[in-house]
Amino acid sequence: MKIIAYGIRADEKPFLDKWSEENPTVEVVSTAELLDENTVDQAKGADGVVTYQQKPYTASVLDKLGSFGIKYLSLRNVGVDNVDATAAKRNGIQVTNVPAYSPQAIAEFTVTQLMRLLRRTPTFDNKMANGDLRWAPDIAEELNQMTVGVYATGRIGRAAIQIYKGFGAKVIAYDIYHNPQLEKEGIYVETPDELYAKADVISLHAPATKENEHMLNDEAFAKMKDGVYILNPARGILVDTDALIKALDSGKVAGAALDTYEDEVGVFNNNFGSFDKIPDERLKNLMKRENVLVSPHIAFYTKRAVRNMVYYAMDANKSLIETGQSDKLVEL
Ligand code: COI
């Protein structure tokens, strides 16, 4: 059996090598290159493909995989929004993801960024670096005094809820699906509007779908409390960036922590050498603000998560090749 793993980064390679040692019956070929029209030919002769990338898995790539007789594509991440579902189905390609490599990694980072915003630590870091050791005017707020509105209560949302509760915050949540335990606790509100109206902090944990594209737009911001905090470690497309900038300018939004950004592909996880050379003016507008924390989609990026992404995706691909089954199959 042969599996080709695309887009293998230096931090993933030791985990892939270890998996390969532990699975001597599998021939593992890996490349740092991403899976696209220029590299897809390297998959010829493989039984399965393992990948992670944010650029699209296009119809032409999937058609090529289909023409090589490859039926199994295993992603090392959660989101499947960049897979051309029609082309995958047309070619009979089954797709697996890694739904839970470490929900805690993302939840912990989300709350870390919120605490930095509330305690004004970026401002104090800047002041200290400039020799200004005064307190005022940067007085902080306490999370235990706030209501956090969690949008979507999948694994990551639930991990975040546990941490928010640990801080003593009041938590409310919105989701179409109600988790039985959270339901018992009476955490759910009926509509997104109710969440917007009641929350001091909005913590987004939803996947990207057609329905929730730009869900935080001018109308949504208008329904929120003045001085709300926005956290988006989920998908950039959930937030209308222009609307967010307006809401920051007006003071409607007191602060935002954005680990995702709608135009992040090709920008995040790249080194441009200097701030000025970052090729996105809107992103730089956000990055320049002390009350906005932009991070380059790193909430997931821990040793445990990276190990699990590699192991679970390789296990899923092997299982599909051997049995045609995997508990990580995705409905596209
Ligand atoms: C995902 O797993 O879908 C993520 O958003 C993390 C990714 C950058 C590896």
TrEMBL record:
It holds the Pfam family 2-Hacid_dh_C. One of its GO terms (molecular function) is NAD binding. Residues 8-330 form the D-isomer specific 2-hydroxyacid dehydrogenase catalytic domain. InterPro entries: D-isomer_2_OHA_DH_cat_dom (IPR006139), D-isomer_DH_CS (IPR029753), D-isomer_DH_CS1 (IPR029752), D-isomer_DH_NAD-bd (IPR006140), D-LDH-like (IPR058205), NAD(P)-bd_dom_sf (IPR036291). Residues 112-299 form the D-isomer specific 2-hydroxyacid dehydrogenase NAD-binding domain. PANTHER family: 2-HYDROXYACID DEHYDROGENASE HOMOLOG 1-RELATED. This is D-lactate dehydrogenase. It comes from Lentilactobacillus rapi. The lineage of its organism: Bacteria, Bacillati, Bacillota, Bacilli, Lactobacillales.
